[in-house]
């Protein structure tokens, strides 16, 4: 049950409540299971408030401060958490495990380090949200509305995908960058020691001359992600991948990416080298080009690049494009 003194102060209105909060900054408002359905709590300072299992159905929380509030199990169906300019409410580090946010208006809400495990977000309006490091394990994310009310409806079933779609829709330059990467980006994988990195960089220079955007994977191991995860992300953004099999640098990355992605992997190898044994297992895949293009010197490889590396990759992409077009035109 809520603390009766705190609930009475809340019901006396915004000015009384906010003045009390300002005078008692160290007091945590105890409003557990409070029944506030349909109330207008706009502009209320509810940061750090204990609202566990509170009934907030249809409540107006526009411009309210809710950072670090405990809203676990709260009922927020149809609640509004925006203002007329769609400046969203601050839910940074709020605890909302098991909260029901079905059809809630979360446009432009700040969801940073917010705990939404097992919450229900189905039908929520999530246009313009800022979602970073949100905990979503077990959350129900169905038909969340990504677009503004005056735009055609676009829905998705993933909060972080919703944020990404919003950014793509509203930032023309980013769309152009994304299209450039997926159409002309080429990931180059291979050995770094024994002159291997010089080969990769030479390939990158030649690809630039031919109008491509090369990405050479030669940076330090990320602190919070494995090499493999990073390679999967980069490869998924590119048109095709060039793989130097001359050294031992790529087996783990290939194992993860070749079977997960349907983009061309064109292999190259310095003459006299032997590829690792398992690479032949990929040869049956139509998007994995094996045996590798062999070369004795970098200059020889660069001469072969247009016809034996780029042409097979682009030809595969065109065949796949036509195949998909035929499927969807039926």
Task: Give the SSE map.
Elements (H helix, E strand, L loop, with lengths): L3 H8 L2 H10 L86 E3 L17 E3 L11 E2 L9 E2 L2 H12 L1 H13 E5 L6 H14 L3 E4 L10 H10 L3 E5 L6 H7 L7 E6 L17 E8 L2 H32 L1
Parallel strand pairs: 1-2, 5-6, 5-7, 7-8, 8-9
Antiparallel strand pairs: 3-4
Helix pairs in contact: 3-4, 5-8, 6-7
With strands numbered from the N-terminus, the spatial order across the biggest sheet is 6-5-7-8-9
Supply the CATH architecture of the largest domain. 3 Solenoid
Strand content: 5-15%
End-to-end C-alpha gap? 61 Å
- Say what the CATH topology of the largest domain is: Pectate Lyase C-like
Uncertain parts: none
Task: Describe the largest sheet.
Answer: 5 strands, parallel
The assigned structural class equals alpha/beta
Give the domain tally.
Answer: 2
CATH class of the largest domain: Mainly Beta
Number of helices: 8
Shape: elongated
Fourth CATH level, the homologous superfamily of the largest domain: E3 ubiquitin-protein ligase SopA
Count all strands and give the number: 9
Describe this structure in words.
This protein is 32% helix and 12% strand. The protein has 330 residues and is of the alpha/beta class. The chain has 2 domains: 1-170, Pectate Lyase C-like, CATH 2.160.20; 176-329, Rossmann fold. Helix 5 crosses helix 8. It is elongated and about 85 Å long.
């Amino acid at each position: 049950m809520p603390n009766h003194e705190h609930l009475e102060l809340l019901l006396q209105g915004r000015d009384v409540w906010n003045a009390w909060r300002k005078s008692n900054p160290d007091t945590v408002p105890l409003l557990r299971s409070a029944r506030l359905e349909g109330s207008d709590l706009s502009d209320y300072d509810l940061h750090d408030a204990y609202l566990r299992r509170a009934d907030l159905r249809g409540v107006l929380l526009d411009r309210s401060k809710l950072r670090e509030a405990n809203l676990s199990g709260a009922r927020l169906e149809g609640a509004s958490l925006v203002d007329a300019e769609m400046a969203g409410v601050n839910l940074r580090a709020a605890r909302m495990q098991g909260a029901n946010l079905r059809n809630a208006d979360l446009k432009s809400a700040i969801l940073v380090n917010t705990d939404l495990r097992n919450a229900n977000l189905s039908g929520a309006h999530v246009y313009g949200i800022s979602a970073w490091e949100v905990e979503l394990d077990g959350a129900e994310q169905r038909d969340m509305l990504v677009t503004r009310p005056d735009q055609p409806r676009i829905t998705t079933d993933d909060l972080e995908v919703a944020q990404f779609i919003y950014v793509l829709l509203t930032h023309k330059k980013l769309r152009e960058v994304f299209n450039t990467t997926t159409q002309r980006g080429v990931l180059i994988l291979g050995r770094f020691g024994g002159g291997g990195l010089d080969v990769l960089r030479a390939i990158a220079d030649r690809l630039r001359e031919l109008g491509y955007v090369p990405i050479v994977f030669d940076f330090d191991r990320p602190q919070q992600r494995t090499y493999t995860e990073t390679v999967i992300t980069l490869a998924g953004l590119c048109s095709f991948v060039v793989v130097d099999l001359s050294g031992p640098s790529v087996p783990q990355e290939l194992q993860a990416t070749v079977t997960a992605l349907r983009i061309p992997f064109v292999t190259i190898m310095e003459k006299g080298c032997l590829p690792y044994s398992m690479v032949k297992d990929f040869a049956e895949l139509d998007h994995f080009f094996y045996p590798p293009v062999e070369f004795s010197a970098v200059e020889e490889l660069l001469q072969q690049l247009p016809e034996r590396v780029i042409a097979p990759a682009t030809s595969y992409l065109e065949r796949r494009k036509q195949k998909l077009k035929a499927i969807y035109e039926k």
